[in-house]
Amino acid sequence: xxxxxxxxxDDVDVVFKEKKKEAVHAVDHVSLDVNxxxxxxxxxxxxxxxxxxxxxxxxxxxxxxxxVTVLGDDMASLSASELRDKRRKIGMIFQHFNLMxxxxxxxxxxxxxxxxxxxxxxxxxxxxxLDLVGLSDRADAYPAELSGGQKQRVGxxxxxxxxxxxxxxxxxxxALDPKTTVSILNLLKELNTKLGLTIVLITHQMEAVKxxxxxxxxxxxxxxxxxxxxLDIFAHPQQPLTKDFIDTTMQLDSxxxxxxxxxxxxxxxxxxxxxxxxxxxxxTDQPIIATLFAKYQVTANxxxxxxxxxxxxxxxxxxxxxxxEAANIDTALQFLKDEGVTVTAVQIPGGKK
Length: 353
Ligand SMILES: Nc1ncnc2c1ncn2[C@@H]1O[C@H](COP(=O)(O)OP(=O)(O)O)[C@@H](O)[C@H]1O
Ligand SMILES: [Mg+2]
Description:
- By secondary structure, this protein is an alpha/beta fold.
- It folds into two domains: 5-236, P-loop containing nucleotide triphosphate hydrolases (Rossmann fold, 3-Layer(aba) Sandwich), CATH 3.40.50.300; 252-345, ACT domain (Alpha-Beta Plaits).
- The chain contains 13 helices and 14 strands.
- The protein has helices at residues 50-55, 80-87, 105-110, 119-132, 148-159, 178-195, 206-212, 230-235, 240-248, 252-260, 263-266, 288-296, 326-338; strands spanning 5-16, 24-35, 39-43, 65-70, 73-74, 90-94, 166-170, 198-203, 215-220, 223-229, 272-280, 299-310, 313-323, 342-345.
- The strands form three sheets. The protein has a six-stranded mixed β-sheet with strand order 6-7-8-3-9-10. Strands 2-1-4-5 form a four-stranded antiparallel β-sheet.
- Strand 7, helix 6 (178-195) and strand 8 form a beta-alpha-beta unit.
- Helix 4 crosses helix 5 and helix 5 (148-159) runs parallel beside helix 6 (178-195).
- The radius of gyration is 24 Å and the shape is elongated.
- The relative contact order is 0.11.
- Bound molecules: adenosine-5'-diphosphate and magnesium ion (MG).
- Residues 16, 24, 26, 44, 46-52 line the site of adenosine-5'-diphosphate (ADP).
């Protein structure tokens, strides 16, 4: 079964040109497909162009050139009333929730439905939505009475009021603590599964992408510099920025600093090498370390180990000092590569090689 494309960016450019200022190329020749049922992560640092890119989906932002097709229609070609209908198919949630402070939770969620459904229908729908996001008991509360996580649940319920097919999440978890972030991401994943909702998840947190996304694109200076399935991107990142983002999910920066201070690492002998091993899935089942000694008489001193789960597939990173005859180490590393393990020599920050 081939996947149905719900959003297509075709060579899209957005250039902001203000008087007396240099033009900003916020979106730079982006072509991208999002399929039905995807949770598509778009990750990049602040200013990369992520928000501008997703605002093209509901035509809050017009492309300077290129086209954006959503659910079969070129957005720029729609009449005002067609655009209004189309936007109802595209929900959006934000970092700062954008709730109306003077209205109750129920009224906030009901807001997009005013004038479209009867009072009774709205009441029914709001009750369903609040149940869906786990806030049935807070219908009469005001936003100020809720925690950040609860406010985002209201934002999600409101975004789902018009039964959208696509949900855009623009840094929706960036103002939340880690535990609340996990619960909101789990809710998005649940909605994706239960409702078949297609989600575009904009974030600067690779951790969020790792938790729920099926596909990832990395943005830098307006351009998509790398893309792929979650597993491919984590297992074989090509761009330095992608590698940096992945390393943030295991706090590798601070880990390397700690490792660098260890005497064993500062005074590596001629028969020792500091190596990072990265593996996905099946390789994990191999008793790698034991094999290195049994077959090549190379011992491994593990300085750091991190095993995470990516879509239920183990993803492992080890930093080890390998000790053995130089030739044996070389053969051992080749064996690891043949087993599908990525082998990287570790450079110690500030240290000699
Ligand atoms: N309306 C606008 N007018 C001028 N420049 C803008 C506008 N919106 C965004 N930009 C610029 O476009 C670039 C990308 O911004 P944005 O899409 O908000 O990035 P991100 O969401 O990744 O942080 C930034 O340099 C930003 O300053
Ligand atoms: Mg943004």
